[in-house]
Structure formats: C-alpha cells, structure tokens
Amino acid sequence: MSVRSRLWRQRLVLLAGVSLVLQAPGALAQEETVLETITIEAESDDILVQDGYVGKTDRIGTKTDTPLVRLPQAVSVVTQDQIEDQRPRTLNEALTYTAGANPNTFGFDTRYDAFFLRGFPTHYTGMFRDGLKQVNGPSAWFRAEPYGLEGITILKGPSSALYGVSGAGGIVNMVTKRPKDVPFREVEVGIGQDNRYQAGVDLSGPANEDESLLYRFTAMGRKSDTELSGYPDDKLYLAPAFTWKPDEDTKLTVLGEYSKARTGGTAFFYQPVYGEVTDIYGGDPDWNDFDQSQGRIGYEFEHRLNDVVTLRQNLRYSEVDADLQYSGLSGIPAVRDWGHYKEDLKNLAIDTMAQFEFDTGAVSHTAIAGIDYGWSDYNAYSAFAFDLADVQSAPPPFIGSQKTNLLGIYLHDQMEWDNLTVFGSARYDWTDTDAVDFAFAESNQKDEGFSGRIGLSYRTEIGLIPYASYSTSFSPNIGFVYDDPSSTVSRVADPTIGRQKEIGVKYEIPDSNAVLSAAFFDIDQDDGIVFDTSAGINKQVVRDLNSRGVELEANASFDNGFSLIASYTYQRMKIRKGGLGTEGNELSATPNHIASLWGHYLVESGPLQGLGLGAGVRYVGDSYGDDQNSFENDSRVFVDAALSYDFGYRNPDLEGLSLQVNAKNLFDTQKPICSAGSCYWDEGRTIYGSLRYRF
C-alpha cells in the first residue's frame, strides 16, 4: 500500500451536512500540494497485524503470533480499514463480506449479534473477545460495538483444541482497540435517515515522557429511530484502556467497557399463516423497549523470562443485564399478547499459558501449555399475558437460573522445518453446571471431553501454500432430550461433538499485498440439541448435522489506492437426525450459495485526488423456510455503496478532515426470510453520512 493510501486511511472524519459537491470546486482551483508522508493508523497492530484489507499475523489460531497464511485452517479477517470504509452498525453487518459467514438469517433485528459459520449457529458457542470466551444468555447477550473494534478474526471449523467449549462452525474473535505508542486523536459526528445522530471520539498515545504508560479512550453516543415504529437504536459506549511497559520483556494491558443500549422489544411481523409474513409490524410502540447494559474489565499480562520461555495471562470479568418489554400478534383474527422478560448474566474468564521457543535439530518449535477457567452465573425472569395490565402489575417471576464452571488444560506445538509447518493441539475440558427451574427444583450436570487438532501446510517455491487439517469441538448441553418425542422417557443430554476435515490452499501474490484462499470442508456434528415443536410437541431432541462445502476468498490492497474483498461459499447443510419429518432434509435458512464483492478506490492524483469510491454487491441464494423443507425463501441481491472525500489532499490546512456517506441496500431490496418456520423482513435502504477529523 502506498504512503498516500495509508495516510488517507489514517485521517478522521467530523460530521456532515456539508456537501462534497459544494466543497470540491473551490478545492480544484487550488494548486496541488505535496503532503508530508506521515503515517497514523487507527489499529495498534498489537495482537492482530493488518495492512489495508489484508490480515497478516494474529494469535487467534494458535495463541501465538503466527502468519495467517501458514495456519492450516481457513481464517478470515475484517480489518480496521474495511470497518472504516464500510461503516458497519453491528457485528452482523461487519461479517456480510466474509466467506463462510451467514448473518442474513433473521432479517432486520439489531437486538442481537446472531449469525452462522459454515451453517452452524455461532452466537452462543463461538463468541470470543480478545481471545477469551464470551458467554451469552438467551437475551442477556453481549453486543459488539464496531466503533470499539480494531479488527475481527474468524477461525472456521471446530476450534475447541485451544479454546475449549465452542461449536462446530468456528469462532469469531473481536479485537478491542488498544493503546498506541504514537499520538492518535479523532473526533467524529454522523447523521442519517430515521433521525439518526451519532458522535464518537478515539484518543490514544503515550501518557508519560518515557512512554512506558500508554492510554486509549474510545467513546460513542447514538440517538436513533429505525424503520420500525417504536423501535429505537440508542447507545452509549465508553471504553478506557491502558498499557504499562516497564521494560522490553514485560507488558500489562487493561481493557474496560461500559455500554448502555435501547432497541425495540421485537422485530417480528404478524404471521396469520404458517410460513407467510405480512407487512404488519407486531410490536406496540407503547410497550416495546429492550434495555441492555453491559460492562467488562480485564487485563492481558505478558512477561518474557528468557529467549525460550514467555508467560501470559489474560483475564476478564463481565456483566450484562437485559430488560425486554415486548408484544406480538397471532391467530386469525389477530390477538395481541404481552410479555416482560429480564435476564442477568455474570462471566469470569481466565487463561494462563507458557510459550516455549526452541529447536530440535532442524525443526523449530513454538509450543504452549496452558490452563483456563471460566465461570458464569445466569438468572431469568418472565411474565406473559393477553392483558398488558397483568404484565405491568408485578415484576416478572423467576423462571430459572444456571451456574457453570468450565476448566480446561491444553497443549500446542507448532513445528517448522524449512517450508513445512505442522500443528498439533490437544485439550481436555471439564464442565459442572448447577441449574434451578421455575419450580425451584435443582439439578446438576457434569460433562468432560477431549478435543484435538492436527494440520500441516507447505509453502511452495511459487508462493502457493496447500494445507490439510482435522479438528474437533466440544460443547456441553443442559437438560434432557427425548429419543422418542411421543414418549415421556427422557435422558440427560450428551455434549455436542463436532469433527471437521479440511483441505485448502492459500496464495500470497508475490510483490503485492494480496492473498487468495480456497478451502473444502466436511463437518459432522453429533448430539446437537433442538426443540421439536411439530404436532404440538415442545421437547428437546437430538439433531445430527453434516455441513459440506467450498469457500473462495480474496483480500487485497494495492499500491494504486484500490482495495478488494471477494468471497464465494457453496454449502450443503444436511440434517442426519432431527425432529419429526426432518431427517435427510436441508437445514432451514441455510442457502447453498452466498457470494459477495466489495471494491474501494481512492483517487491519489489528478483533479479528483482525495475522492474515495466504494461499491459492493451481496448475493444470498434461495433456501428452505423450515426444517421440513415445506416452503422456500427466495434468493436476494443487496448493493452497498460508499462515497468519501479527504479535504487534506487539496488543502493542507484541512489535513485530517474527511467526509463520508454510506448506503446499505442501495436499491431497497426487501423480502421475507424464514428460519424454522418463523419469518422476518430484510431491512430496507439506509443512508448515513459522517464527518471525521483525525489529528
């Protein structure tokens, strides 16, 4: 990437209402000025090293700093530059151009970060923050704020060998903005349709003269309506961070967050007939607030004892409280019901490891041994009635709680011999869960299991890196399952086990900042759990799945100011065993084909220098609307666009000031999307502008 290109990406924006058309003519009349080659990047490149749209090195795949092209498993990265160019409002939006990811299942619903990887739900078992597991409850759900992230790493396929309890589809690791060792300051204001107003600040740099103490403070406030009546999208986000480096061998980083959000209580529309959805919004504006507050505090400590041994410990404590007021319409004629649901969830996660770097003959080893512990405490309260007064008359009663302890030990060895890399990982987990139901009946469930991964990659002389791997996952289930749903005989649910075979190839284009990758995967999931609601049944049954497919992905940022992301996924998600009438069918809302293409071009010379143009297209293929495969969802195409102007290219007095406008779903495509028989609507066209100033 050229210095000018990097410089543009460092500049920040302040708000708009100003018109690019009005500003450009005066700028064009000025003489061209050569700017200083100053590089100020928003990302810290601490645990995720990135260049433009290309992720270079990360710790997520191996818990060591490893070039991603050498990892024998498919990995995608959403970089800081991509986030800045596309301006996602949610984690789901940030993943829309990622191969293997499907964030389109639930249409417009900003209440949750809910998405699928390789066909498997990832929002409960695969959410990680800074390498530590993030546990979610049914509604007490930690939500990510894209403005507070400097990147997202998506590790696809079973990954329990290093990270413990997680699902078969993979994990998504959100990298928090970290302190930088150079001054960085930005201010941003934004405005958009649906009365959307937003402001943010991001400040970082050394806090003392010897630069042993670094700080970062990121804050964002938003007040907004949405296209749904009585459904707000308000948020306050505060994230302080500090790094202490007393010497070259020791580093302590403290990361914190407090956020408070309000969205709508429901995103459902009236469904008078199974599998069909009307344009009648089900929520009532007078009882439709979903209030959520969350906080986290933790640290990352690292100390290098000598040239062989490095010690690390990461810890985080977090809490989330959810208060959900909702209503809905059902039946013919439509009858309105009302509900009040509250949850609270507390989490502790701590991971302690030792890294060893040594040689055995011609083989170089990077090995780790570690132990991690997790604890969570969850409580839920719920009230439901056909009269709002009955719901409002008293606080919702207790319906259940759950306390879980997770303990795991793991080993990993990364061996390199010339151009050959071999990975081996092994882990054993123990889980202990105490549960209390609505009648205050207590139960205890203990599970344990082994997870492993083995893989190898080889870098050829022409830069191609073929690889192969086998990996497994382990995720315990709570409660009882019915092998025969028509019977009253049940058994304790077994843990869900995932097994993946993957082969692929990665290619770093020589003398260019571009990476191409292709992967074939075959995943079996055994003892998954799903509710069987057919024929009036509402019992947990086992669902075994097989996901098989191909992923193609390209990421590039060239020296001429052009950046590109392209992805294609073919996938067939088969139900091997499941609810009544579903065996042999395809899983609902899981399209066989998903493709996307995004390009961004910054004009770096000539009369239009400083102008940025971005455009993207997303294709989501047809799928089934329920697991019985009784009806289908139509395919759909979404078009996104971005327009920006960096005023500093033409006027050095305005260096750091830039204006940007982003449009999502530019042609206003709106179709129903149904999953397990429940239907939603796509969000229509949205347009937002922002003005940023980076200095």
What does the model show?
The structure is a single chain. The chain has 695 residues and is mostly beta strands. It has one domain: Maltoporin, Chain A, CATH 2.40.170.20. The chain contains six helices and 40 strands. The chain has a 22-stranded antiparallel beta barrel. Strands 5-11-12-9-10 form a five-stranded mixed sheet. Strand 19 and strand 20 form a beta hairpin.
Question: Helices, strands, pairings?
Answer:
Layout: H1 3-10, E1 12-13, H2 20-28, E2 48-51, E3 54-58, E4 66-67, E5 75-79, H3 80-86, H4 91-94, E6 101-102, E7 116-117, E8 120-121, E9 127-129, E10 132-133, E11 149-156, H5 160-163, E12 170-176, E13 184-192, E14 196-206, E15 213-223, E16 233-247, E17 250-264, E18 289-304, E19 309-330, E20 335-360, E21 363-385, H6 388-392, E22 398-417, E23 420-437, E24 442-458, E25 464-475, E26 480-481, E27 491-492, E28 496-508, E29 514-532, E30 539-557, E31 562-577, E32 593-602, E33 611-620, E34 623-624, E35 632-633, E36 636-646, E37 657-664, E38 672-675, E39 678-681, E40 686-694
Parallel strand pairs: 1-37, 9-12
Antiparallel strand pairs: 2-3, 3-4, 5-11, 6-7, 7-8, 9-10, 11-12, 13-14, 13-40, 14-15, 15-16, 16-17, 17-18, 18-19, 19-20, 20-21, 21-22, 22-23, 23-24, 24-25, 25-28, 26-27, 28-29, 29-30, 30-31, 31-32, 32-33, 33-36, 34-35, 36-37, 37-40, 38-39
